[in-house]
Design goal:
Nuclear Transport Factor 2, Chain: A, alpha+beta, 635 residues, 7-stranded antiparallel beta sheet, 6-stranded antiparallel beta sheet
């Protein structure tokens, strides 16, 4: 049965729509110290017209969503320091970067590519570097074509590890610092940040803090790097005595202070405890700001899916917030969950009922991975990125099913899907069904694979590649036989040394010398590591995120990830091509060809912060499997 539209959904049904991180999200905030009257930071008044255009539009959309009348000055000036510094640094770089066609014709600035601002991510504690210090935007029609036609930007090989959902990768020419624009396949949504530092081998694999600070204009000497390329940005986030401004937002939105919880308030051991606390916070304590911590960013796809793929992602989190508030108004002031909830039993092969004390208020089912995969809104919204449907295993996902009651009516059945994220139980998908007790996980339609998006079924890789890759890593990281490990590098990989070397590292005169220096870096990395008997004790695989990469049947999934790489992407990842500045190209009408290239990726275990990922590209040369390119991927 088809779910009703968002507009027709009652308030308590709307309340389980999920959210994206937004401009003044509390995840970027730190609690304010009591009685601190000092506020540092640049104001809305100092923004340029192009920057104001984005803020004015965002606040206008926010006011419509929340039924408020906030001025852009109030909202912007009260945003966290890290949010404002990120917004100003990225937009300043964009507005001072002119776009010029190959014929010399001016095409405006890079800021003119943006139709609207969706969200700004400043500092987000316990989050990956590729999710911090960047802006998310909706591009104007034709923006992708304008980038491709400009002299200032070049398309690099697609993102394969970070920037999930934004594989198309454009970087500003001229080296770091540079603007990186990562674009979704639809050509409309983009993730934009400034890269201030190059990834270095092996330091980036060990120094996890480097990945986040890479795009934070306030970190280290990033500000000096910024104004060295884009002049005119004021360093307002430091006080007269050089101390950094505190990241202490206090955004007044009508009667409420907008301090949306970034995570649940407790790490509960059992799923029923987490669901009960979520419902208690929302319906009994009536604290929707705190209840927002239970919504995983993954669940925002449910809103987009419900709207047929068209939603204002920048406002989704505020829609859910307002809906939670509306639900509180509808139910009044209940004393217990029994007053407002009733559990719903559904019939679906594969679901297992979990015995728990709140069965009358909400029914918990243990859901196998394959049904959870089918139910996941992101998989249904982007089937080309969904990956292989997992086998039937239990223990990772649970479903909570219930109805919410108002004094004068009964709500509709809500099915919510939960899993652990960072040790917390969080809601990752939902489904609303009008009045029925039979509710099932709907399988995504089985479509014929398109030429541009082959199915991501796990494939078999040549035995020679599997053996060579494992022996290379074991020789390097377990047996510490770097001389043997370096033999797997092709002379073609020598160009990677120049791309990754630090300014203080020696310049290689030829390919042999470059590989000698690479071997020295590999030995240096090993010297930092504790002895281990297995690769799984040293490294952990990092999944590839790209619609055209095919996962490989992997005998050691706990140590590294493997993928089959299409020929055109493999050619784009070669270091000599990247060093030459040659643009990445592909024929969208051509079916990708596989079999020549395979990739492996991993990061070091037990490294604090956010260590970078080591990625190696393999192919055969003279009948032997060799690494022809390697990279250190931060974000």
């Amino acid at each position: 049965m088809e779910s009703p539209s968002f507009a027709s959904t009652p308030p308590w049904g709307k309340a389980l729509l999920a959210a994206a991180l937004s401009l003044v999200m509390a995840a970027a905030a730190q609690p304010s110290s009591a009685g601190d009257p000092i506020r540092f930071g640049k104001s809305y008044e100092d923004l340029k017209p192009g920057q104001r255009r984005l803020i004015d539009d965002w606040v206008a959309r926010f006011n419509r969503t929340m039924d408020r009348d906030q001025g852009p000055e109030t909202v912007y000036d009260s945003a966290p320091v890290s949010v404002r510094s990120t917004f100003e640094a990225v937009t300043h770089a964009l507005m001072t970067t002119p776009l010029t066609g190959t014929d010399g014709r001016p095409m405006g600035t890079a800021l003119d590519l943006i139709a609207r601002l969706d969200s700004v991510h400043g500092k987000i504690r316990r989050s990956r570097g590729d999710l911090q210090f960047r802006i998310y935007v909706t591009l104007k029609p034709g923006a992708l074509e304008k980038l491709a036609a400009s002299k200032e930007f070049a398309r690099h090989a697609d993102n394969t590890i970070y920037h999930k959902g934004y594989p198309i990768n454009y970087r500003q020419r001229g080296g770091v610092p540079s603007i990186q624009i990562s674009i979704a396949r639809n050509g409309r949504e983009a993730d934009i940040d400034v890269d201030y530092r190059s990834s270095r081998f092996p330091s980036a694999l060990i120094n996890g803090h480097l990945t986040a600070s890479n795009s934070d204009v306030r970190a280290g000497n990033n500000y000096d790097r910024h104004v060295g390329r884009w002049q005119g940005l004021a360093n307002w986030w430091r006080s007269l005595f050089g101390l950094p401004a505190k990241d202490v937002p206090a955004v007044d939105i009508g009667e409420e202070q907008l301090q949306l919880a970034a995570l649940p308030r407790e790490r509960y051991a059992r799923i029923e405890e987490a669901v009960a606390d979520f419902l208690k916070v929302w319906l009994l304590e009536q604290d929707p700001l705190e209840a927002m911590g239970y919504f995983s960013p993954r669940s925002e796809d449910c809103v987009v899916l419900k709207r047929g793929g068209d939603a204002d992602r920048g406002m989704v989190r505020y829609e859910i917030l307002r809906s939670l508030m509306s639900a509180n108004d509808a139910v009044g002031k209940p004393e217990t969950l029994k007053d407002v909830l009733s559990g719903v039993h559904i019939t679906q092969e594969g679901l297992r009922v979990v015995r728990q004390p709140h069965h009358a208020q909400f029914v918990i089912f243990e859901a196998p991975d394959d049904l959870a995969y089918d139910f996941d809104c992101g998989n249904r919204l982007r089937p080309e990125d969904a990956g292989k449907r997992p086998p039937r295993r239990y223990g990772k996902y649970y479903a909570a099913v219930f109805r919410v009651h108002a004094p004068d009516r009964v709500g509709e059945t809500l099915l919510t899907l939960w899993t652990r994220e960072k040790g917390y139980w969080r809601l990752v998908s939902f489904e609303l069904e009008p009045g029925g007790s039979r509710l099932s996980f709907g399988k995504r339609p089985q479509e014929e694979p398109s030429a541009a998006a082959p199915p991501r079924e796990a494939v078999a890789a040549p035995a020679g590649f599997l053996k060579a890759n494992h022996d290379h890593l074991e020789s390097w990281l377990v047996r510490r036989d770097v001389k043997k490990a370096i033999r797997y590098f092709s002379p073609a990989a020598a160009a990677c040394y120049e791309l990754l070397r630090s300014p203080e590292d020696p310049e290689a005169k030829n390919a042999r010398e470059a590989l000698d220096y690479t071997a020295a870096a590999m030995a240096k990395l090993v010297s930092y590591l504790a002895p281990a008997e297995r690769l799984e004790d040293v490294i952990i695989g990092v999944e590839f995120y790209h619609p055209e990469l095919r996962p490989v049947r992997n005998p050691h999934p706990d140590a590294y990830a493997l993928a089959a790489v299409p020929d055109h992407l493999g050619e784009g990842l070669r270091c000599a091509r990247r060093a030459s500045g040659e643009e990445f190209s592909e024929d969208p009408a051509a079916r990708p060809r596989y079999g020549r290239y395979y990739a492996t990726s991993f990061r070091l275990r037990n490294i604090p912060g956010q260590p970078a990922v080591f990625r190696a590209l393999w192919t055969t040369q003279e009948g032997k499997w060799r690494i022809v390119a390697y990279d250190v991927v931060t974000h």
